[in-house]
Every structure is written in structure tokens, then in C-alpha cells.
Amino acid sequence: MAAVLDATPFNFVAIVLLVSMGAGLLGSLLGLGGGLILIPVLTLVLKVDIRYAVGASIVSVIATSSGAAAAYVRDGLANLRVAMFLELATVAGAVTGAMLAGVVSGRALYFLFGAVMAYSALAMLRKLREDGSPRVEPPPDMLADRLALHGSYYDASTEQLVAYRVHRPLAGLGLMYVAGTVSGLLGIGSGALKVPAMDLAMGLPIKVSTATSNFMIGVTAAASAGIYFARGDIDPFIAGPVCVGVTVGAFTGSRYLTKLKSGSLRMLFVAVLLWVSFEMLAKGVRG
Amino acid sequence: MSPQVAEPRAPEELPAAAVHPVALPETVPLTPELLISQLLRGGVLLSLSLVTCGMVMTFFRHPDYFSSPDALQRLTSPDSAPHRLSDVFEGVMAVRGQSFVMAGLLVMITVPVLRVALSLSIFRAQRDRAYAAITTGVLALLLLAFLLGGVE
User: Which residue ranges does UniProt annotate as crossing the membrane (chain B) (predicted)?
Assistant: First the structure.
């Protein structure tokens, strides 16, 4: 760490760029904003002040979301109506979270976050076992019908047009409010909470959930980023290279997402969720 | 449903004669998906250009950043990052590299807001009242967030 602190500004920027590229690549493949990977590296390895790490992360989250979403939207993978409907809840949550940030203790946050993530990971693991059987058609849902939330997408790995139906939009709305609050509190995109809310609660296919989550994250993060900027928590010297690196990585990742089979994507996702939730819980316990 | 029963020939003629020649050339390049995709890509590219230019300018104006470890302490220590729009604007006018980076980051923060605004005009053009209302709600919440941030 001393070695990094003795680095010149140029070396620092170069290292931050490389790390951010890796985080952006992984983040877009998983439907995460990359913030979960970036914040530990920036604070623990590069010794950046936590406030600035969070400020840089939140802008990079917008970059990842917008960069990857441009491709998902063009390819018809993201469901724009589901996204807009659920953004009501994520943005309201982001405002709540940013206002709560000064009240709740850091340890409680880490612990809560770890617990929620572990739950999401285990729930997805359970779904993975059931996935050998063909997708079950969700029961009819009046509100989903009225909002015309159903959709279809082209699956490049099976070369088929897959139509899907959506149900329980209100359950999704409630879960998205929680995801938005976590995003506003911790300065992350919280795609790890958004994907299960659509995948498990609303019955969207995993690829559509991942793409739609990526699409929505930018709006959620923009709500908190405005507040971080006003607080002076966005340092251009750190946030600049983070933003560029993450976008380049996310662009590369989004080009290869449709080529991954859903099963392997989900396994990768579960492994990352479990790892991060363990880290979070440990930090909550140790303080 | 009912027109199909009442006039079996009309629906078959309409798509071929009226819908295809007029609608196809206009709707294909202007699907909402494509518009939004272009906006996202354009906004991100503009933001990244500003950030990259600003970073290059910074190192141009401060050659000591290639050799001096002391400068890093100053640049990454918690002091005053610009946090008012007027500060950033003045810095850009003074051709300060870090202000260009900051302007690029602010463009990035604005992109999702513009995307929601664009969605609103798309839903209104489609006369989709329910989604126009939903999108207006999202936009109002975003503006509320920025106002709350300014107050703090």
C-alpha cells in the first residue's frame, strides 16, 4: 500500500483505469454496476478515501448502465415498459436511501446488505435446480395485462424468439423500492437485488432481467449521483479514469452477453453474490 | 376482433396497401428502442470525450504529475472537489483539465435523466396515457432528488 501511495499521479491514473476496465467487464456480464468490485479495490488496495470511492463508483455505475444498455435496448433484450414501471420504485427508493444515509450506522448497513444478498443468491440457486424443466407459464395477472408488461426477445444461443409473460408487478415494485434504497445508501447500482426481483418475483427470463436491470440502474444511480455531487464527494481525478475504464469494460462485456448460456451465467452470478455477501457480513460483524 | 368478423376482406387489404409503403420506411429508423439506444450511446461518448480530453489536458499542464508522488496525496486527499455547477463552469472557461473531467461526469449524470425525458415524449406520441403518467412520475422524482441534493 505504501508503494501505491508513493506512485506518481500518472501511475495512479493508469492503475485505476486498468482496475476499472476489469470491473466494468465483469459488472456488465453479471448485471451489476461494477461498484461492488470497484469500492473494495479503490479503498483497500489504492487507499482512496471511502467518500471519493463511493462518489466515483456511482458515476461509473451510470456509465456501465448506459454503455451496456445502449446495446441491450437495440437488441430488444431490455423490456422498456417493465423498466419504466419499476423505476417509479427504484428512484423513490434512491431518494429515501440518500436521506437515510446520515441516520443509519455503517455496520448495520453492511450486515443488512450481506443478508439480503445471501438470500438472493440462495433463491437463485434453488431456481437453477428447477431450470431443467421448461419454463412454467406464470398465472394470468390483471395489472400486468393492463400495463402490457409482457414481451419477447431473440435468444442468440438457441436462435429462437422467446415470448414471456410477466406477473406480480406489485411485488416487483416493492422489491425495487428496497433495491433503490440500498443503492442510495451505499452508492452502488444494486443490480444484484434488481435481477432477482424480476427473475424470481415477476417471472422474467434471466437474460431479460439482466438487461432490464442494467437499463434501470442508470436512472437509480443518477438520482443519488446528484446528491453526491452536491456534497462534493465526486473527485474528478479519481472518478474520471474510473468512468472511462468502466465504460470500456462494460462495452466489451455487453457484446458477449447474449452468447452465454443462461445456466452458466446464473452459476457465475450466484458465485459472485455469495462471495460478496460473505464479505459484507464479515464487515458488518467486525465493524 | 369484431371488424375481422364483420369485414373479412378489409384487414387483409389494409396492411398491404396502406401500412407497408408508408409505415415501414418511417418507423424502422425511428423505433423508440433505437432512439433511446442512440441517446445513451451519444451521451456516453460525449461524456467520455470530455473526461478523456480533461485528463490529457491535466497531464499536459502539470508535467510534474509524471514524476512527483507528492502531487497524488494532494489530488486524492479529502478536500474540496468542485461541487457547484458555477465552479465547474468557471473552471471550463479557464481551460482547467479537471473541470473538463467534471463537466464530462456531469454529462454522464444527465444522460439517464434525458433518457427518461425522451421516453416521456415517445409515450406521449404513442398516446399511451398510463405510461406517460408513469414516466412523468419518474421524472418528477429525479428532479426532486436533485433539488434535495442542492439543499443539503
Answer: 39-60, 99-118, 130-151
